[in-house]
Amino acid sequence: LSDRLRINGSLARRAIKDLMARGSIRMISAHASQQIYTRATNT
């Protein structure tokens, strides 16, 4: 997210939290400092 939109890491983390709260994305895996997300589907 930070590379694609050219924003810093703290802003990217805040955007990810907002997208999760809206239900737009969901977390697949979290380990230490790396998290993996995907788009939320209606299944």
TrEMBL record:
It comes from the Eukaryota. Keywords: Ribonucleoprotein, Ribosomal protein. Gene3D superfamilies: Winged helix-like DNA-binding domain superfamily/Winged helix DNA-binding domain. The keyword Lipid metabolism does not apply. InterPro entries: Ribosomal_eS25 (IPR004977), WH-like_DNA-bd_sf (IPR036388). The keyword Cell cycle does not apply. One of its GO terms (cellular component) is ribosome. Belongs to the eukaryotic ribosomal protein eS25 family. PANTHER family: 40S RIBOSOMAL PROTEIN S25. Component of the small ribosomal subunit. Component of the small ribosomal subunit. The ribosome is a large ribonucleoprotein complex responsible for the synthesis of proteins in the cell. This is 40S ribosomal protein S25. It comes from Trichinella nelsoni. The gene is RPS25.
